[in-house]
Amino acid sequence: MKPTQDRVQQLPQLVRLLMLLTAAVVLVLVVVLTQLYGPAPAAPEVVANEATEGPPPPGSYRRPATPAPDTATIPRTAAGRQIRYGRELIANTAQYLGPQGSVLHLTNGMNCQNCHLQAGTQGFANNYLAVAATYPKLRARSGQVEGIEKRVNDCLERSLNGRPLADSSREMRAMVAYIKWLGQGIAKGKKVYGTGFVKLAYLDRATDPVMGKAVYAGKCQSCHGPEGQGQPLADGRGYQYPPLWGPHSYNDGAGLFRVTNFAKYVKAAMPYGATFDHPQLTDKQAWDVAAFVNSQPRPHLKTTHDWPDISKKPIDHPFGPYADAFSVQQHKYGPWQPIEAAQTAKTN
């Protein structure tokens, strides 16, 4: 009798154990089935917000940049001819506006395309796609609202060390038409993935022109020359590879004369053949070669009217006066974290 009574007394415990095992199996099945057949997870907000928050951190650039419109779709009309002429001016500026230009003699022999790769369409290489959507806009450098024409002339005067075009000129109208054509379909005020520069974390030290010279010798001088002189075309009306310093390069008022801009640019686009998603330089190499190139002699531009509000100057602007006590040397070469921290503390 006793064994039977013991088994009867143990029965509730067995029932509870079976119920617990059954519940665990059901829970596992629910999790598995939800993963296999449940609704797809919502698209991460990061993708939706990249246009305003900037690109993802270095090392995760795997999504293709927003493509430019196909040039085959440029209409065979008078407006289309103007767009095509604008693209030709961007790609081969020196042939039309250089020292031996067929239209005017305004610029130093470089092409707009030397800095805005593939006629302004390569991702994170001074890409033009968002220009029409974001101009006119207030720019702190001039303290004024600028249109596309002013932005083009800034490049002619600074990056091409030349003189401005009249807004009403055939050439200016053509370049603006091309830039607007590239930005077709982009909503006003919006940016698209691939415009601007890649994000590049600051070094924990100042950038080093001496180390950058070694990077230049190994990675850059085969195209740009040991003295940064570039490689002229056979007809002398431009460059196959542009000069990076010296009398025929961009002047010290150009955007690429800022070390942070140059570093981000070369990280995403140099040496020749590199792209933002397949870079050829490490971050340190990009920073140091930017410091080296921008420590070399180049034409000077009087910029007495730049940055009327000096508190708006970028932290890497290479000329004073500044709204802080940091040196010109540190503003140009870094480290920039202390400057950034001081500015943040001042505004809080």
Automatic annotation (TrEMBL):
Pfam family membership, one: Cytochrom_C
A molecular-function term among this protein's GO annotations: metal ion binding
Gene3D superfamilies reported in the protein's UniProt record: Cytochrome c-like domain (1.10.760.10)
Superkingdom of the source species: Bacteria
Low complexity bias locations: 62-71
Keywords: Heme, Iron, Membrane, Metal-binding, Transmembrane, Transmembrane helix
Transmembrane segments annotated in the record for this chain: 17-37
Limits of the Cytochrome c domain: 207-297
Region ranges (Disordered): 48-71
Cited InterPro entries: Cyt_c-like_dom, Cyt_c-like_dom_sf, Cytochrome_c-type_DH
PROSITE patterns: CYTC
Name of the molecule in the record: Cytochrome C
